[in-house]
Amino acid sequence: MNLRTMTAQQKITLSFVVFLGIITVIIIGYLLAPTLIYDQWIWKYYWGPVVADASGHSISYNGVTASEGYTILSEITYGVILVCALFGLYKLLKKLEIKIDWYFCLALFPYILFGPVTRVLEDTNYFSEPVVYWFISPLIYFQTTLYVLIFLFLGYYLQKKAFTRRKTLFILLSVFFLIDILYTIMWAFGIRYGASIIEPGIFYVLSILAFLPFLYRYIKKQMMTVNTIIFSGGLLILLPCVFLIGRWMTGNQWSGTYGTYLNVFFLVIGLVALIVFLVYLLAWIYRKHDTMRVYKNPLNLSMLAGHLIDGITSYVSIYDPLSMGLPSYIEKHPASNSLMELWPPLFPIVKFLLIIMVIYVFDVAYKKELTKYSRLVNLLKIGIFILGVSPGLRDLLRVTMGV
After folding, report:
1. What is the reported pTM?
2. In angstroms, how far is the first alpha carbon of the chain from the final one?
3. Distances (CA, A) of 297 to 147, 269, 293, 294
């Protein structure tokens, strides 16, 4: 028996056994040599950096110091986990017969924004312990994935059952109402999760705003799609965080700040918009050529925009080329830091060229070979978009808010 002849159930079982085997080996190793397994490995490379990030400085445990940021080992580990997670998500979406395209990416957009928005809230020391750990990478990504899966399965269930439009709307209204009730209970019992608690009345208004896409489809006499349910669910978790950012920017700040720099925000977004527009314009002018036409695909342009935000923000915030008086920032990723040490603008340039090359490989060089894997290719593109826009937007908001 080999992988090609194994049934789907056998492959799932094998993956589960391998996962349990790895966990078992780690547990046994910890019991036999806790200093080596936990102190020198888990703490130093994985959990320690999370605690250090929450504290804002290096942390020592049993003589082993962990610093903020990533190491080569942790980046490789998280990269492997990401690839496995994307493949598992691909298999799940394929089984549920959910189309992965630009509209699916739009449905995920609130969750994509949720990561960097909450990370910058963590940078402002908003969250209290132990809640804060859930808003530091990589735990924030696990949390976000959980939210996506909850609304994905809810949408799939409602679509599978094919309820009437009125009943579907009632079920969704009940879910949102239940979340509002749970939040009210938390507030009534004085459960604090951060430095500036959102009042229930404001939370209800934000909940209504997140519910509007459902009302729109109902008024238009359209059935609720999985994408709509995923999108509105994402708005429900994103809007409170955006409200807190707005509260900070309007002067209600709960920690120290170097001042707000909206000029940096508009500079970076303006440059990204200009570059993406020029790429689109060039692709439109030469749209009769297959090689160029792919560069006006919205999913491809989103990948480019996401990584340009990351690259340009890193360059501007670290080197302050226009002398805007920005606070001192450093680059945590070893690879990008090495590029900027060679020549500061090299990082955004390399990012631009890499995404151009990725698009060429996917949509031109291996277009025919990948045609039957379009679902997987689009999922990889969404993953690449997230890898760029998530750290990029977090850094951009951090500079803008002066933290």
Report:
1. 0.86
2. 56
3. 28, 20, 8, 5
Could you tell me if 217 and 283 lie in one domain?
Answer: no
Distances (CA, A) of 205 to 168, 174, 194, 249: 21, 16, 20, 20
- Mean pLDDT (the chain) is 87
104 and 252 belong to one structural domain: yes
Residue 244 lies in a domain: yes
For residues 67 and 58, the answer to whether their CB atoms sit within 8 Å is: yes
247 plus 166 within the same structural domain: yes
Q: Which of 256, 275, 307 is the last residue of a domain?
A: 256
The verdict on 210 and 355 lying in the same domain is no
CA distance 31 to 222: 57
249 and 266 share one domain? no
CA angle 357, 74, 45 (to 5 degrees): 160
Residue type, 126: Y
Give exposure, 281-318, as e/b (b: 16+ Cβ within 10 Å): eebeeeeeeeebebbbbebbbbbbbbbbbbbbbbbbbb
Position 388 in a domain: yes
Structure tokens at 88: 């598992």
Which helix or strand (DSSP H or E) is residue 61 part of? strand 59-61
Whole-angstrom Cα distance, residue 87 to residue 95?
12
Least confident among 28-42, 95-109, 119-133, 362-376: 28-42
Residues 251 and 105 reside in one and the same domain = yes
Among 222, 238, 256, identify where a domain stops. Answer: 256
Distance between CA 398 and CA 329 in Å, rounded? 10
- Confirm whether 194 is domain-assigned: yes
At residue 38, the pLDDT reads: 80
What is the domain extent for residue 130? 100-256
The Cα 228–Cα 238 span in angstroms is 15
DSSP conformational letter for 194: B
pLDDT number for residue 5: 59
- Residue ranges in 220-261 assigned as alpha helix (H): 226-249
As a dihedral over the C-alpha atoms of residue 32, residue 40, residue 50, residue 316, rounded to 10 degrees, the angle is: -160
| Shared-domain flag, residues 234 and 107 | yes
